[in-house]
């Protein structure tokens, strides 16, 4: 099926399909379209949102049956094959021969990708490992000395995710200041951000402007370039006393204050209104993954602010309001906020 036809046919089952990447649509056309049509014949609608207990049980049943058919030792080997390089070839062959995609999604009227993510969440023994112990931090320093920034290798040695070990090392690699930002640190941050943005702009302009034009030109950039895809590890190194996440959060705060001319958008009644609007808009979007959210558009829900500001507010909402949020999918978190927290906020307002 060509891409346009796939979009058209999938739109009947997934209204927001045109907001999904082309590569994901192609995969869905192969894995889901026939399944969706079969469910339609049975009068069953495609589902999104939180997985029910019945669906979770069906996933367990499907995984157990597949293990029984193939003789693969464990669900971890099946769903995290890369952790077992010595068995990878055999497992991959068995998954292909016994139609793993079809078997895993059997009886569950949802996109295959969501079923797969849910299964990985349910069966990953490395999930929810909590804070790093003192011993783990020492191991991380040792492994980094041996392997540098090979986070994939280090993550396997520590049974943590790539992102987790990279972020934790960024925090512990040097003496970091966790107190309020000093005036000197703030100036260092602003100069570091300006430097990397100027460098980027000069590279972009290298082929389009003459040297005379460049020498007479003031730096003029789109607002989005002030906060999108900045090299935070490079900025961290220039600041020296803060790790990259602190730099990013502080820069977002500075930008927010400048863009709103110092207005307090998240205080008093405005704070309640912003939370209510954010939950409503996220629910209306009906997306299954945080990566599919148009955070730029959502920034208008709270005000003229950087998208990182909105993302930070959503993070605080889910952490403070959603029980066991780490074990829930993005759509489950949004559903909970809409059904349980929204009425409470509206009552407070």
Note down, in words, how this protein is organized.
- It is built from 19 helices and no strands.
- It has 349 residues and is mostly helical.
- It has helices spanning 3-11, 22-31, 33-41, 53-70, 75-79, 88-97, 100-104, 112-123, 134-147, 151-158, 162-172, 183-205, 211-215, 232-239, 244-259, 268-285, 295-302, 307-321, 330-348.
- The N and C termini lie far apart (50 Å).
Quick overview:
The chain is mainly α. Helices cover 64% and strands 0% of the residues.
Question: What does the secondary structure layout of this molecule look like, with pairings?
Answer:
Layout: H1 3-11, H2 22-31, H3 33-41, H4 53-70, H5 75-79, H6 88-97, H7 100-104, H8 112-123, H9 134-147, H10 151-158, H11 162-172, H12 183-205, H13 211-215, H14 232-239, H15 244-259, H16 268-285, H17 295-302, H18 307-321, H19 330-348
Organism: Haliaeetus albicilla
Protein name: TTF1 factor
GO molecular function, one term: chromatin binding
